Request: fold
Amino acid sequence: MERIQVALIGAGRMGQVHGPNAAAHPGLRLRYVIDPRDEAAAALAARLGAEAATLDAALADPEIRGVLVCSSTDQHLAHALAAVAAGKAVFCEKPIDLDLDKARAAAPQFAGARFLLGFNRRFDPHFQALKQRLDEGAIGALESLHIINHDPAAPPPGFVPTSGGLFKDFTIHDLDLARWLLGEEPVKLYATASCLVDPEIGRQGDVDTARTVLATASGRLCVISNTRRSGCGYDQRIEAFGARGMLCAGNPGLDTVQMLDASGVHAAPIHPGFASRYALAYARQLGHFADVLHGRADAAVGYADGLAALALAEACADSLRRGHAVAL
Amino acid sequence: MERIQVALIGAGRMGQVHGPNAAAHPGLRLRYVIDPRDEAAAALAARLGAEAATLDAALADPEIRGVLVCSSTDQHLAHALAAVAAGKAVFCEKPIDLDLDKARAAAPQFAGARFLLGFNRRFDPHFQALKQRLDEGAIGALESLHIINHDPAAPPPGFVPTSGGLFKDFTIHDLDLARWLLGEEPVKLYATASCLVDPEIGRQGDVDTARTVLATASGRLCVISNTRRSGCGYDQRIEAFGARGMLCAGNPGLDTVQMLDASGVHAAPIHPGFASRYALAYARQLGHFADVLHGRADAAVGYADGLAALALAEACADSLRRGHAVAL
Amino acid sequence: MERIQVALIGAGRMGQVHGPNAAAHPGLRLRYVIDPRDEAAAALAARLGAEAATLDAALADPEIRGVLVCSSTDQHLAHALAAVAAGKAVFCEKPIDLDLDKARAAAPQFAGARFLLGFNRRFDPHFQALKQRLDEGAIGALESLHIINHDPAAPPPGFVPTSGGLFKDFTIHDLDLARWLLGEEPVKLYATASCLVDPEIGRQGDVDTARTVLATASGRLCVISNTRRSGCGYDQRIEAFGARGMLCAGNPGLDTVQMLDASGVHAAPIHPGFASRYALAYARQLGHFADVLHGRADAAVGYADGLAALALAEACADSLRRGHAVAL
Amino acid sequence: MERIQVALIGAGRMGQVHGPNAAAHPGLRLRYVIDPRDEAAAALAARLGAEAATLDAALADPEIRGVLVCSSTDQHLAHALAAVAAGKAVFCEKPIDLDLDKARAAAPQFAGARFLLGFNRRFDPHFQALKQRLDEGAIGALESLHIINHDPAAPPPGFVPTSGGLFKDFTIHDLDLARWLLGEEPVKLYATASCLVDPEIGRQGDVDTARTVLATASGRLCVISNTRRSGCGYDQRIEAFGARGMLCAGNPGLDTVQMLDASGVHAAPIHPGFASRYALAYARQLGHFADVLHGRADAAVGYADGLAALALAEACADSLRRGHAVAL
Reply:
């Protein structure tokens, strides 16, 4: 298999997730790592058998056919636009941008581009298995949905101001899952939330515990449950209720060992965070991007999906602010 | 142990649940069965070693110290009032009444009465185990709650008009559980619902699929999930999320047998309906009423609890009608 | 339904299990309780609405049509014989006797008698569900079997000398299950055992930890695992392996609550002992005896089954003594 | 991290497992692939960025510091000896050889060598978690053990004659696990077996369904359960019973999705075979070999472990042949 050359923009947290997957993929060659912090770029490049480069140089190299945008959120859109303008296929971490108007305004420039947005959960094998059985009709017509997305522990101080807030930063994953699974667009939404985990989050104007209810035109209902701190690990589940039964994708445990003693039955914790829980999803997502580059697939999650999820996230914030349901 | 004599009003569905438990309890003697349908009263009385009687006769008998009100919903309040007026302790099936104003107006007449309302789920051993661990602080302070209450199959035609609607008939159980577990009264509520199970239910003005979100003054959140038809049995679960972890009360299976073959791992269905799922809860509830009669306990669920749940059910209907959240 | 009168011999541990089930059964009337300890007989009789009596009086009463033999093990055979001689149907606790020769010699006197031997595990709903699926061919032809029977805690001092030893007292249940499930008689057997739980058991000449392997003529294999002290409750499981898959009957938990915290996933203990674990099996076993008395069923476990299990238990002890496999 | 160069002998089934793990390991560089079938060597080398070579050339290259012996079983010993003689560290697939005498005779030549034998199950994360909790004393002193090793489907015709038979080919894994977990050497062993899966296996003089019971000097007992065809996938479990409870390592499912419908609760199959089930174990095993090469660890499984397991496998065959227990 030909190894198509790609460049990685961003040597931070997500670059360190996607870079190794690109380097290990038999159909890709990670050629450049770009980061304004020279040392970070050089270190990650060395680790992955790539070379540090400037953005301009990487985009000017005709051998580079794909770009992984893993820069800071406020740079996603600019970097994606530059890569698209240079004729590259783009994998872009979510969200496209925190500003819906800005993201909408840029949409025309992505027309026709090969663009994959990083909603990794669509590539999780457990969630994909649920989706497949749903599509096969295992439980008949879908009627309602529960999406549980609970982070293990509160984010560090200073995270909130640049995060876009709970809905745009965190719930957005679930809003995308809801769109993916419901098979219809939501037409109405109600979000309510509290600050129970850390009062500092509240002081910075955000919430940490939320419930959102979506309804589609045909009456399908979806509840999204979010908290910033579960106390028991990274709780990631989906329950789908249909006319003939239900499907649940549960939390994989860290191992299968059970210990029985006089006090009960004890099993391993669930995954401690996104890195291990979604390791396989990230690898499969990158594999899908390789398929896009090799012309074997169209991008499963496009720019329009990013806009739609962002619009729903804004609507959640709006519902919370106004204290009641909003029509979409 | 002395066997205190009790009378049962109603030989229908719920009378056939509570009557046998009263007859089998070592501290009770089921003496009379009262039902306007003479044959039904006689048949149940014969089966349980009791005798058919009129309401007046039973209430006039000084040996009778407790009355089980299992008549039709529209008779609950009148029968409970009559029994209280006769100085009897009363166990009354839920709901007290479908009319909140009427129920409120009657409240003073229950002051000082020994009155146990039939919210059976508070007596379920699984839910009690969850409550106990919550109260012991196993997961720290409670922050949010999911209550799943899904009926196995749609009710028969003709049920809807006299039922009071989904919220007063069905969700009311969950509203009581929410009050029991949250440790605070809800101050705000949003309900949304659809008719997805049976269009006939919609034609009769009711809904069959609903999600309700409650919030308390301190910001605790509770989601109630209801459907009239799960397709997979009687799905009855509670998930409680706290500062240090979570507690889940799941669905007990019909047996523990697992079958593994080439297609996967297969286990028995969950319970098919309320009668088997809550058999032990009903027996323990009746045992609690026996304790009340013997002076060993105060009624754990009183008239005020019935009023509070009914008020919340009305608020759900109000929220649905108005399309947005309501303050309580 | 007619209530057929029965007498209970033995007000001890097993009498207190079977007596209440007989008293509560709608097709039986527990009339007499017989025990050489007058007070014990009187107390149990009073509690169950029966009367204390002598064995002779009970057997002479033509109204008594069934007898429950729950006396001490060394009296089982004599009491069963007396009851059969008096024309009564007999439910007899296991084992028939600890002396195989004596039990064999008595066999002709049970010819034609209605005799149900108390191998309660055949009436456990979990094991029955496994048996039913096996018989339905869910896993194809049975090839091998694991039976796990682990007691929660070592027996009290003084128990061993009259118990008959681990194999006749404890493994005998599993030997009966093996015969029930294998569908063929074992033709070869190997037992090995240790004293690991309590050295006092070893001093009294018994063992507390054992593994037994049975083979049938067609080559089906069965392993029986026994220990006198599991440390985690009453571990009672069956695994059946067939040509197309496997069936496992697991340990029901005390409740369905799971607690997740940072240390893992925690569930309730398994049952602490036989009384609660097999409560339903005992009730169903008594129900089956009622069916026998009412002429609705033939006894599912007969005298020959008792002899066969006892012979296998002797063969286990023989194999252990000789240190190698024995042909049957 | 320096990438130490290694050579792979054997481009067949196991070479295709270990080769990619060596190629992907950050501390190793897979330099040569050796196989008498030139095309196979070339194809695997090309896929893994290595080059095809002769054994002599590879062993003569001073840059090669480690050798992976994945040739056919009858070549394991010769290849391992050649590599050791050339001063290389050796990873050798199990078994060392099918001939115990031959393997014993060669033992002195491995004195002082860095030699890791491929008992992959010791590196499985589930079994390692069980071992760790056992070593931590979670269930007190170990008393007995069940090892379940059931292959998914019967081997192809022609496999049996060169396999060494069930015990040396298959049970040998479990005998090694038993030694690893028991903490004592077995002193007595009994094996019984049947041919139930495929009569052709019997015609070729082998068995396909077996149970083996081991006992140690202190009385610890271990049962090994084997079949060549489970009908439900690759059933790989361990149960350890101690003074204060039990530990079970179960079968990880292919995903966490549960489907509930009217017929029951349905989950994904267990793993279909060794490749996916032990993928992580193989990677960790290779990682351990890298640690040995880097001087960070001594080989966890040595030549003596191979001899010991092989001796036990021979004893199993001996016990089966003689029909009774054998002392070791």
